[in-house]
Amino acid sequence: MSARAWFAFGAVSVLWGVPYLFIKVAVDDGVPPAFLAWVRVALAAILLGVLTWRAGLLPSLRGRWPWISTYALVEIVVPFPLIAAGEQWISSSLAAILIAAVPLIIAVLALRFDHSERVDGGRLVGLLVGFAGVVALVGIDVAGDAHELLGTAAILVAAVGYAAGPMIMRNHLGDLDPRALMAGSLAVAALALTPAALVAPPEAGALTVEAVSALVVLGVFCTATAFVIFGHLVLEVGAGKAAVITYVAPVVAVALGVAVLGERPGVGAVAGLLLIIAGSWLATGGEPPSGLAAATGRLRGYVWRRPARVRRMSST
Asked: How far is CA 304 from CA 48, 298, 299, 307, 310, in A?
């Protein structure tokens, strides 16, 4: 990659690693999850809307609003409030680790919706390793606390939305400029979240200086700026290489949670993070170590090799 691409990659990895910290700051100060999501989305929609209008890209959205609205629903409207709600009960580090399971969920969804993505061999090992990480995380660090289980469930549902969104974008919106797509999606999301924000506004004392600062950072930098830089990164290096950010951002989030908020991830969280990242890499096409690759190759050959008698019967 070029120096500019590496800079974009590093910038987005940080910008998508820090939201969990600022979400935690805002919700701990009493900002309702729906209002937090609405402010974040509305600010980003205004900034990206102006940028897209000045670039002359708005006409490209004509006739595409049904799929743009669907994408906005699963990628923004549902996940953003759920992540904020989940962080009312779990740490920012735990939320980021759970979101790291998105590539695993994409691989599972591909079994049903993208038959070209056959999950076997190394990818099958990746799914098993990654889900073992989720089990370790939930079973060791979360089990026994009803509120933490509820927060974990909210984050995992958000992760499903984050997994479904790229599939919709690739299959139905891939020809659109990323800036135009995100401007339209954020505008739809802002409208959809407005009623919830009006029904549950923050109490007078909730909008502290820290909370307001967190909302501005989330909207201007973690959403609008990050999406613009990510769009340029995708255009330069492709979606596949750009998606590696998924493995880096949770590490940034965990480091910030420890350094700034004083969070102390437990054994399950650390084990879960390592297993989820390793499993995600394998499940999305990474290669396992040579010994493991050879073993899974032999296993795959054993499972899929048909006896000679069966081959003869099938050829008749």
From this structure: 50, 10, 9, 10, 12
Compute the mean pLDDT over every residue in the chain, rounded to the nearest whole number.
Answer: 80
Cα 7 to Cα 13: distance, rounded to the nearest angstrom: 10
pLDDT tens digit string along 107-136? 788 777 766 555 566 667 777 787 787 777
In this structure, what DSSP letter does residue 288 have? P
**Which tens digits make up the pLDDT trace of 62-110?**
999 999 999 999 999 999 999 999 999 998 988 988 887 887 787 788 7
Is residue 181 within 8 Å of residue 169, measured between CB atoms? yes
Task: Work out the number of other CB atoms within 10 angstroms of the CB of residue 192.
Answer: 18
CB-based contacts of 117, cutoff 8 Å, min separation 6: 107, 110, 111
The owner of tokens 């073993």 is 295
Find the length of the chain.
316
At position 96, the amino acid (one-letter code) is: A
CA–CA separation, 215 vs 229, rounded Å?
20
Q: Amino acid letter at 144? A: G
Burial of 240-265, coded b for 16+ CB within 10 Å and e otherwise, reads: eebbbbbbbbbbbbbebbeeebebeb
For the chain, the domains span 3-285
